[in-house]
Please model this.
Amino acid sequence: MCEQVAGDSQTDHGFQTVKSDKLKRLFKNRRRDESILKTAKTLLVHGMTSGRVALILRLDPEFVAELAKTWNPRFRRVKHTSQRTTGVTIRQYFESGAMLEKICADLQLPLFTVVRYLSDEGIPHAEILARFPEETAPLVIEYRKTLSRHAHRKQKAPRLH
Model:
């Protein structure tokens, strides 16, 4: 009878608040550790889901989900390649017969950059235009915007001293 009056639920509730306070403190302390954050970002880059990263590193799931959303996707590559390597890769893709849309998707580069690399390699503009995506493709729309932005750019005269 005393158990019913005191209520097991009251003691369980008190235990849960202590447990949740300890969890909050643990999550807060681990969130501030730079090595853990770096590991979390690396795991996210390699394709792990935010929930799994939170479980492995014992981080707050909401924090890891927010990190996955806000962390700049442009820098979410495993390894950055040099410009020379990128140019050689684009040329090999082009010589193998790949369309420009596939090259952009595989290398995660904008169309303007791919066209610039190909023209720098000495490929005629007519060959490049033959493999262009259709006019309404988002790549072509962004390409035109970039071209218009670069057309009005003023180059500064070189300074000798």
